Amino acid sequence: MRAPALTTHLERRAAVHSVDCFVYSVPDLAEAERFYLAFGLDVRRRAGHLELRTHGHPHVWSRIHEGGMTKRLQYVRYGIHARDLDEIRSRIEDAGLRTDPHDWSDGQGLWLRDPDGTPLQLVVADKVSPAAKSPPTAVAPVPPGQGAAPARSRVQPVRPRHLSHILFFTPDVPRMVDFCRTILGLRVSDHSGDLIAFMHGIHGSDHHLVAFAKSHARGLHHSSWDVGSLDEVGRGSEQMRIAGHAQGWGVGRHVLGSNYFYYVRDPWGSWAEYSYDIDYVPAGLDWPAADHPPEDSLYVWGPPLPADFITNQEYPG
C-alpha cells in the first residue's frame, strides 16, 4: 500500500491548531464539580464558574458556568499561531461572520459565529493539542511467577492527561465541515455520509480535534480525554460506577480514530470519554480521508450502543 503523501503546502495554510477551551453552563455547579472530580480532572472553583484542568498541566481546558434549567454550550475558543492571525481575520471579515464577544469571555481575539450560531473565539495561544502521538503510560514489566494485576484496594485513581477532542451536534454536517475547512483551516479525517464527520488540525493533532454528528439542533455531545492505557480506560469505567455514575458505553474500540473508549453519561445527558491510543495526524500529512458506511463508522467491538447515546439532550426534540 502506498504511504500517504506529505504535503508541505498544508503547513503553510493558516488554521486553528487547538481547541483551547470549551465553555458551557449547567444548572448546578456543585453537581458538575462532583462529576468531574470523580472523572479524575483537576477542578478549581472560581467566582461563578469552574475551571477544568488535568493534573500536572497548567492549561484550563474548559470553563463551566452556572445558569439556566439545562446544560447549554456557550462558546468555543480555538488557538491560532500569531503568523496566521491576519489571514484568518481577513477570512472572517470577507465572509461577514464577525460578532461581539461572549459576555462570559475575556473579550480578546477574533470573534465569529459558526453556521449553527455558536460563538467562536480565536486567540493567539500556545499549541495545546498534542505535538505527537500520545505515548502509553510506562509500566514496569512483571516477570513470570508474579501477578501483574494490582489488588483492587490499591488501584490508583485514573487521571486524564489532556483533552483529546470534542464532538458537537449540528443540524447540517456538510455545512459545518465546509465552514471548518474554509474559515478555520481544519481538514476532514473521515466521515459517514452526512451523519458524522471527523476533522483534524494541519499543525498536528489527534485523528479528530473536533467532530460533528447530525441532530435537529446544535449542542455538545461529548468531550474526550486522553489516558495512557487500555487498563486505565477500564479502571475509569469502574471509577465512575463506584462514584454513582453507572450509565455508560464501553469498554470498546472505535473504527475511525482507532481509540479504545469508555463513555460515561454526565448529569445533563451528554458524555465524557476516557480515550486511549487514538490515531495521530502529523503536521503536513495528507490523511487519506474516506466516506465510510454507517456500520464501519462507530466501533469495532464493544457492548451495544445505548438507545440514547446520539440523543441531543441539550435541545430535546
Commentary on this structure:
This protein is an alpha+beta fold and about 325 residues long. The protein contains five helices and 18 strands. The strands form three sheets. The protein has a nine-stranded mixed beta sheet, covered by helices on one side. A seven-stranded mixed beta sheet has the order 2-3-4-1-5-7-6, with helices on one face. It is about 15% helix and about 30% strand. It has a single domain, classed as 2,3-Dihydroxybiphenyl 1,2-Dioxygenase, domain 1 (Roll). It is globular and about 65 Å long.
Keywords, separated by commas or semicolons:
317 residues; disordered N terminus; 9-stranded mixed β-sheet; dioxygenase activity; alpha+beta; 16% helix; 18 strands; 7-stranded mixed β-sheet; 2,3-Dihydroxybiphenyl 1,2-Dioxygenase, domain 1
The CATH architecture would be Roll
* Overall average residue pLDDT: 94
Structural class: alpha+beta
CATH topology: 2,3-Dihydroxybiphenyl 1,2-Dioxygenase, domain 1
Annotated CATH homologous superfamily: 2,3-Dihydroxybiphenyl 1,2-Dioxygenase, domain 1
- Tell me the helix content: 10-25%
* Broad shape: globular
| CATH class designation | Alpha Beta
According to DSSP, the number of beta strands is 18
Count structural domains.
1
Strand order of the largest sheet: 9-10-12-8-13-16-15-14-18
Poorly predicted spans: 1-11
The ordered H/E elements are: HEHEEEEHEEEHEEEEEHEEEEE
The separation of the N and C termini measures 45 Å
What's the number of helices? 5
Strand content: 25-35%
Question: Mind summarizing the main beta sheet?
Answer: 9 strands, mixed
InterPro entries: Glyas_Bleomycin-R_OHBP_Dase, Glyas_Fos-R_dOase_dom, VOC_core
Protein name: Glyoxalase/bleomycin resistance protein/dioxygenase superfamily protein
GO molecular function, one term: dioxygenase activity
Keywords: Dioxygenase, Oxidoreductase
